[in-house]
Amino acid sequence: MLSPNSFKSIEEFVSGSLILIDKPLGWTSFDALNKIKGFVKHNLTIPPNEHGHEQRFKIGHAGTLDPLATGLLVICTGRMTKSIDNLQAGEKEYTGTIQFGQITPSFDLETTPEGNFPTSHLTIELLRAAAQELTGAQMQTPPSFSAKQIDGQRAYKAARRGEKIEIPAVAIRVDAFEILSFEENEACFRIACSKGTYIRTLAHDLGRLAKSGAHLSKLRRTQSLPFDVTDAWTVETLLEKLQNMSN
């Protein structure tokens, strides 16, 4: 497999590269792509391909991250975009925090926390036992505030209008759900899972199994095998490298 972030020229970057980006908080995955596309359009002269023909810059990502999530975003350019399906099939690893005592309609902080659920009975041992119940192969229903296509529209658009829609469950696999710490009604976790797993749904389900309520308060993707966020660049680092190559 092509080594990530290893391109040696603008031509190599455009014709087919694998880029690992550490997505910042608040950006959508498409924000990251558009930032790169805009830079290429306005700052770079794309060389012709090996046959002397004009090249059109192609770019895509292998696995979406929500705006409230940070971490590893695998980006492909040129001919590498044909490998996106294979690249996004790898197991994912996430870390983050789950807040107990309130739930949200989106299962994370995209929407306002509500309710007042009991928490005095919660212990790290109880949460670890509940997390074990959420490991293994299972069917998971994506949250209504998700990008799933239902009847030709994104589920979150219907949810924001207050409409109730039926979202079919999908097969997922959770290989590890570790509760690393629990203090002041907040649990730190590590999850290893298959693609298509909604971590905020696991957070919501953990609260339900623990006879409380919970929502995802922080999320970071650390791995999308075989890649690790420790090898990722910031978008600014990537653009600086491209600018230096073009000078």
Overall radius of gyration: 20 Å
> What series of H and E elements makes up the topology?
HEHEEHEHEEEHEEHEEH
Gap from first CA to last CA: 29 Å
Structural class, by secondary structure, is: alpha+beta
User: Based on the structure given, which CATH architecture of the largest domain is correct?
Assistant: 2-Layer Sandwich
Low-confidence stretches: none
Give the fraction of residues assigned to helices: 25-40%
Number of helices: 7
Strand fraction band?
25-35%
* Count of folded domains: 2
Class of the largest domain in CATH?
Alpha Beta
The H-level CATH homologous superfamily of the largest domain, spelled out, is: Pseudouridine synthase
Largest sheet: 9 strands, mixed
Mean pLDDT: 89
What is CATH's topology name of the largest domain?
Pseudouridine synthase
Q: Count all strands and give the number.
A: 11
Backbone shape? elongated
